[in-house]
Amino acid sequence: MAWALKLPLTDEVIESGLAQDFDASLSGIGQELGAGAYSMSDVLALPIFKQEESSLPSENENMILPFQYVLCAPTSPAVKLHDETLTYLNQGQSYEIRMLDNRKIGELPEITGKMVKSIIRVVFHDRRLQYTEHQQLEGWRWNRPGDRILDLDIPMSVGIIDPRANPTQLNTVEFLWDPSKRTSVFIQVHCISTEFTMRKHGGEKGVPFRVQIDTFKENENEEYTEHLHSASCQIKVFKPKGADRKQKTDREKMEKRAPQEKEKYQPSYETTILTECSPWPEATYVNNSPSPGFNNTHNSFPVSEGNGSPNHQPEPVVQVIDVSLVLPLSFCLQNLLPSATPQDAQQWLLRNRFSPFCRLFTNFSGADLLKLTREDVIQICGPADGIRLFNALKGRVVRPRLTIYVCQESQQTREQQVKHENGDAAINTFFVYHAIYLEEPTAAELTEKLAQLFNISPIQISQIFKQGPTGIHVLVSDEMIQNFQDEVCFVLDTMKDDTNDGYHIILK
């Protein structure tokens, strides 16, 4: 009986409690929340919201930048919405970059009516390659002697003043420009993206580069070191016409995608706007040290105006300079010396295309490397590279197939020839000849060696002629060079190419 009386009582208590809880839960509906109920600022102060807030665009990001750079090349349509744009360029083709002044009235008055300095460089996009950039560029330099990674097309550029290119910085050019005037600079990128990928099975994917522009104003010492603005964009460089084919392939792939898929990708724009970025970290690029100007490039090359006919031989302007005075001492030393420091040994390894083993020999001096036996080097580097490194350490140079000696023709040389032809007594004169060693007797290698001798790019040498009977000019071919006698001597003369900015070289 007790159990019968107790059970209903328990149910009533339970039901009463549930009803009170339900009424309490409904009591707040329709009423305004007081100020003390909760604060949205307290909620946003939570760590998770702070992290998201940092990714939102700030007021500074919406402000108008002082400058804007526009690369006149279309962006790829195969780039996803929130990824950075990608632009394809053809190797050696000139592309315009418009330098635009976006300043408001009264903004940066200190540069009004004055020049600013911009530095354009082509660098690696991948972080992994950025860490080994110096080794990568040194390897490219030795595989492509006399070439540059980045050049300016001076005749097509507008508004740039004092363009410069440092021979030791193949991927960098710089110039001055007036923001108040129209300025367009045309660049040429000569390296292709696949030159820095490992060769495995063919069809390797090329690495992306970055085109970065850093702009500076003058300081109190009239040096362009105060940073104003930096921007960059991502590019890939293909062999001539390869960029056009890649752009067409990407466009055709996008056309085949479903409409829902297309919405995930950016549209292709006719031009590429460089986005703001941090300035380039290396202070060596941001200095006021004198660097060879483009207009001075030809000064180290003997220039002769005229048609080069036998009856008209004008005087050369400048004498040939010694290559050893132009290149750093480390580049002129062929053999590794026992006294070389570990830093010198690292430079020697890079110069001889042993960059993969630089880390292994980080603390090795010249004496340490020279003490290694043939078996030691093969065990460390493997059979192929080990034998090559051992031969390089021991200075075993392959004998060239052809050696020729060249001397620049001067006014004194011509006077000697005239006196000799007139029967006058010859005067003893000391002439300096340069030796050129050809491992492959071809016109292309001769052009490269002559370009190295004159410290110019091989593309500046249009043709090489040999003066034949009655003063005729015979085009030098591979077959002609293969029939040269070993240690033959030539006197060099030059004349301007009327069709471009190059030169013809005449062997007499």
Characterise the protein shown here.
- By secondary structure, the protein is of the alpha+beta class.
- Among the domains are: 67-276, Immunoglobulin-like, CATH 2.60.40; 342-394; 402-415 and 430-507, Ubiquitin-like (UB roll) (Roll), CATH 3.10.20.
- The chain is 29% helix and 22% strand.
- The longest helix has 25 residues, at 2-26.
- It is globular, with a radius of gyration of 34 Å.
- It starts with a helix and ends with a strand.
The radius of gyration computed from the alpha-carbon positions, rounded to a whole number of angstroms, is 34 Å
- How much helix, percentage-wise, in residues? 25-40%
CATH class term of the domain at 67-276: Mainly Beta
Question: Averaged pLDDT, please?
Answer: 74
- Give me the oligomer status: single chain
Question: Distance between the terminal alpha carbons, to the nearest Å?
Answer: 136 Å
The class by helix and strand makeup works out as alpha+beta
Please report the number of helical segments.
17
Largest sheet: 7 strands, mixed
Residue runs with pLDDT of under 50 for 5 or more positions? 1-10, 24-61, 283-333
Strand content: 15-25%
Summary keywords:
single chain; 508 residues; alpha+beta; Immunoglobulin-like; Ubiquitin-like (UB roll); 29% helix; disordered N terminus
